[in-house]
Design brief:
The chain is built from six helices and 17 strands. The chain has 268 residues and is an alpha/beta fold. The chain folds into two domains: 131 residues, Spore Coat Polysaccharide Biosynthesis Protein SpsA, Chain A; 126 residues, no CATH class. The strands form four sheets. Strands 3-2-1-4-12 form a five-stranded mixed beta sheet, sandwiched between helices. Strand 13 and strand 14 form a beta hairpin. The relative contact order is 0.17.
């Protein structure tokens, strides 16, 4: 499965040391949809800096650099994509999906296939599929969960069964660093309190990624985004795993994030 027509917004706080991440992320976008438009929302207006960004994306089509100099605090840059999505939702009805990304999160066609399948399976439940960010610990060469800091007890998690072998799980730490919405979800988002930076308890940057995760959450669940899990394989659906390219949590011994191996994330 593949998305019909996708609008992507990527926040990029200008830093030439991060060009490699941005390039890696952007060059995957053409594989995610039949048609797409990319907006790189950055804090620099000067042509010299924007041209350096363009040099990194040579050969990439259908993208635009949008300057969004923030007032007050640079963290508000993460909200610069909001007006773009609202405009495209209202005036460009052919676009079927909207994806917001930080500049260092790599998605593949396998991730999109997982999300589209899960969206269909969960369509009448009020929930939608979630991703799990992971990093590679360079010292021991294992993949670890970026944002979930403790192993999760399967029996204690709120969940929805799709089959006897496949279930969607509700993580107590549902942050995924991005969101993907179809038009139904975006319509709900634009009419909800979640469109405001004042909504929710996360930090201002993190709030920009929450979408409708905390809007009209059903009882017994703490968010609406759920992780696909294969009970037979005792493994998170591989399509749910998205790579956080820098690996800065996994390789920082002083951080509590990026420490739980993916193979040990769900405990029976």
């Amino acid at each position: 499965m593949i998305i019909e027509k996708l609008v992507v917004a990527i926040t990029f706080h200008y830093d030439e040391a991060r060009f490699g991440y941005l390039k890696n992320v952007c060059l995957q976008i053409p594989f995610l949809a039949f048609d797409y438009k990319i907006f790189i929302v950055t804090n620099v207006e000067q042509a010299i800096f924007q041209n350096k960004i363009r040099e990194q994306l040579e050969g990439l089509a259908n993208y635009e650099i949008i300057a969004y100099p923030t007032m007050g605090h640079p963290y508000f840059l993460t909200w610069g994509h909001f007006s773009i999505f609202k405009q495209y939702f209202l005036s460009e009805r052919s676009y079927s999906h909207f994806m917001y990304l930080e500049d260092d999160i790599k998605l593949t066609s396998k991730n999109i296939n997982y999300w589209l399948r899960g969206r269909y399976e969960l369509l009448d439940t009020g929930f939608y599929p979630s991703f799990v960010r992971y990093e590679v610990n360079s010292a021991v060469k294992i993949s670890v969960a970026t944002d979930i800091t403790k192993p999760l007890k399967l029996q204690k998690l709120s969940k929805l069964y799709i089959t006897s072998e496949y279930v969607f799980l509700n993580s107590p730490q549902p942050y995924q660093g991005m969101y993907l919405m179809d038009r139904i979800m975006m319509s709900e988002f634009l009419s909800s309190a979640a469109q405001s930076p004042d909504f929710g308890s996360w930090g201002i940057r993190e709030k920009a990624t929450q979408g409708i995760s905390f809007v009209n959450v059903p009882k017994l669940f703490n968010s609406r985004n759920l992780i696909g899990y294969n009970l037979t394989k005792k493994a998170i659906d591989s399509g749910a795993l998205i790579e956080h390219l820098p690996g800065n949590y996994a390789n920082n011994s002083n951080s509590s994030f990026g420490k739980v191996p993916l193979e040990n994330l769900i405990e029976f």
